[in-house]
Structure formats: C-alpha cells, structure tokens
Amino acid sequence: MKLPPLLVVALAAKIVALALWLAGAKPSLAVACFVAPDPLVLWALFVPSAQGLVRVFTHFATDRREVWLTIDDGPDPEDTPRLLDLLDRHGARATFFVIGERAARHPEIIREIVRRGHEVAHHTHTHPLGTFWCAGPRRLAAELDRALTALGEAGVKPRWFRPPTGIKHLLIGSALASRDLKCVGWTVRSGDSRAGSAEEVVRRVAPQLRPGAIVLVHEGPRLGAVVRVQAIARVLESCAHRGFACVIPRADQLR
Ligand SMILES: [Zn+2]
Description:
The chain is of the alpha/beta class and about 260 residues long. It has 10 helices and 9 strands.
C-alpha cells in the first residue's frame, strides 16, 4: 500500500517527536512536533475540496457555457425514472453517483440510466455517513468492492468515486488507484438535503453557475417531499435560462 506524502510526513513527525522525547528534549517541543502536521491531515480528510490524501477534481476545463450535473444517492425507483424523463426534456446529460446496495436492488434502473445516455459512478456500497473516514481497511475495501460488484452485475464499470458528504479516508488514495477510480468533488453544493423548497435550492445554485462547474444535487427519500425531483427540475430550468448546457466532461478535462 502506498501512503500519500502527507501521511508519511505526519508519521515521520511522530517518530521524530518520540526520538526527541527519548533523547531528553523539552516535552513541549516533543508534543509540538508530534501534533504539528495533524491540522493538515484533518483538513485533507474533512474538507471535501482539500487535496493531500487523493487528487479531488472540483471543476472541469471548458470555454463553453457548460456544467456537469452530478446526482447523488440513487438509484431510486420513484425519482430516477422521473429524472431521466426530465433530463431528456432538457437534452441534458448527467452522472449518477449511486449507492451500491441500492444499485443491487434496482439493476434495471442502472441499465436504464446508461441506455438513456447518462453515466453511472460510485458512491460507496452502504453510504456510511459520518463513519466512512474512520472505517478500517477491510471495511473501506468492502465499501468499494461490493458496490463495484453490484454495478458490474448491471454492466457498469465506474470511473468516478465520490465519498459520502465528501469526507475522505486516510487510505483513500491507494484504495481508489488500485481500483482505477478517480475522486470527484464539486464546485457548487446545492444544499438540497437541507432545503425547505426547490426555490431555495435554485437561489443557491444559479449565482454560482459558471463554465466548468460541477453541480452536486441529490435524489431519493432523504430529501424533503417538496424538494425531490423538483429542485433538479428548477436547476435544469435555470441552466437553460442562463444558456448553460449540462454535459458529461471527458476525463482529460477534469481539474
Ligand atoms: Zn451521498
């Protein structure tokens, strides 16, 4: 397993601190050395757009008015078919970051997403909100591999991965690299999971739209009833109104 430089530095600082302490240095110096890199590690782990543990793509290069709509937490038997019709009506393409166990329950929806010209990506197997970052290596591997199996059974080999709420794992870099997955964050977080109306979502998203933005929205029962599907409908209208096309970027455009 290859550790990212940030973790190597953090571990080295702890070894140096121990050596200082054993050599009789001032305890305050040893403690300072021990904890010095920790804020950086925590930043890389918990800040969704932070680099350091893995390369996180947060936008894509383009000189056209186009954005990447990414829809998390499906597939959902109620929302996804409605979203596919909505995307068709707008001539929009999107990437669905799906949860593996949901994909295993609804492989026909996964196949339909692809058949309609969209892309399916990896959003862990069980969506362990709040516990992904501290999962043991075996659990981390299971979250990645079980979803890959579920998606593989639906005929999909995903290229992209997004951790739940963007919170990473210390070993995410090598775990993704060995599975040929790349980490995708976002430019615009719609806030739909906490919004009280579709209007509120579009008011937040619209001013942040710019060429190459990655827009994060959600589907499924975690959303409020007045937000589900309708917020994405309003975001698509807003994109159309402002002349933005929803496209799936090529890998070499990601930044
Ligand atoms: Zn999610």
